[in-house]
């Protein structure tokens, strides 16, 4: 797995992803969702999630077709009510019966892989492209290994094993997704994840050094309030640069090294561009007291879509026709009563 390389498909054609959503259109959806969620004390949030995702999925196009989000708000609401009920029960137990809450942790760790699998399965099969649904088929014990047991190595290795663990988690997820019966394949190399984190941390320290110099120089000329403001700005910007570098690097590694059959993907996100989008989005949201949130979401979705390409044959009709036939044979699991939309 570490040394395999992707082979380019024959008659390769670049199908660029496109996002056609508009800020004005989505603002109307967002403001109604927000108001109804507040009025209904959160009950409408399930419908708000479905409306939002349907808009973003339907506005994302590749090879002449958009994606579809097919979730039922009632299913999402049930999952949220169950999750909120369990959280409330645990909070009350922790407050009034601390020993009982402590004893519940082993049970939570045992149940968590099941919840993760159910959530991923639900989110996959309510997502579709050209009327073909995605599917996630993870196993309980592998989810337990990659998301419960392996993270312990992060502590034992003082963080040095984290990029390798992150790589194994993403590899596990990708390899257990499928589309119309065809499985996705991950061709990840641990070195790429280590280099991504090394570069991100280097950017962080470089930005921090520049900030420290600016703080040192302004410290002699301005008041403490201004100096503290400069410190806060540079500290926040440094973490923003670190976050952008990790997000862009992760997307490029995952999408750039994933294939399904002979088809593969490319991702060209840049940390500097993503950091600029994050920064200006945050400033716009602050200045407008939150009203710019729809504009920020649309802007980020456009950048991510425009940075992604599907490399395949010209039409993809043969592949999707086969996928639709395969889906007809495996659709008996649709509507499973225990699926939960818990948003893992």
Automatic annotation (TrEMBL):
Span-the-membrane segments of this chain are: 27-48, 96-116, 143-166, 194-217, 229-255, 275-298
Specify the domain of life of the species encoding this protein.
Bacteria
Record keywords, A-Z: Membrane, Transmembrane, Transmembrane helix
Instruction: Report the Pfam families cross-referenced here.
Output: DUF898
What is the designated name of this protein? Uncharacterized protein
Q: What is the lineage of its organism?
A: Bacteria, Pseudomonadati, Pseudomonadota, Gammaproteobacteria, Oceanospirillales
């Amino acid at each position: 797995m570490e040394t395999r390389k992707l082979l380019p498909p024959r008659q390769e054609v670049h199908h660029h992803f496109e996002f056609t959503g508009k800020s004005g259109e989505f603002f109307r959806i967002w403001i109604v969702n927000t108001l109804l969620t507040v009025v209904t004390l959160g009950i409408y949030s399930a419908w708000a999630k479905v409306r939002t995702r349907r808009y973003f999925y339907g506005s994302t196009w590749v090879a002449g077709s958009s994606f579809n989000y097919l979730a039922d708000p009632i299913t999402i609401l049930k999952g949220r009510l169950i999750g909120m009920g369990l959280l409330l029960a645990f909070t009350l137990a922790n407050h009034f019966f601390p020993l009982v809450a402590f004893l519940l942790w082993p049970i939570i760790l045992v149940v968590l892989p099941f919840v993760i699998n159910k959530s991923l399965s639900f989110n996959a099969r309510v997502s579709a492209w050209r009327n073909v649904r995605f599917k996630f088929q993870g196993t309980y014990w592998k989810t337990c290994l990659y998301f419960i047991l392996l993270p312990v190595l992060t502590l034992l290795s003082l963080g040095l094993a984290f990029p390798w663990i992150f790589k194994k988690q993403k590899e596990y997820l990708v390899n257990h997704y499928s589309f119309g019966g065809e499985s996705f394949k991950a061709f990840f190399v641990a070195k790429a994840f280590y280099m991504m984190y090394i570069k991100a941390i280097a950017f962080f320290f470089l930005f921090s050094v520049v900030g420290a110099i600016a703080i040192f120089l302004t410290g002699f000329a301005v008041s403490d309030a201004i100096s503290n403001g400069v410190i806060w700005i540079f500290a926040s910007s440094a973490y923003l640069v670190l976050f952008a570098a990790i997000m862009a690097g992760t997307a490029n590694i995952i999408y750039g090294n994933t294939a399904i059959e002979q088809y593969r993907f490319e991702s060209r996100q840049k940390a500097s561009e993503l950091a600029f989008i994050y920064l200006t989005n945050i400033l716009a949201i602050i200045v407008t007291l939150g009203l710019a949130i729809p504009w920020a979401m649309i802007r980020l979705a456009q950048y991510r879509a425009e940075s992604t390409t599907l490399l395949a044959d010209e039409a993809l009709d043969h592949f999707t026709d086969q996928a639709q036939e395969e889906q007809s044979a495996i659709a008996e699991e649709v509507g499973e009563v225990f699926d939960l939309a818990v948003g893992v």
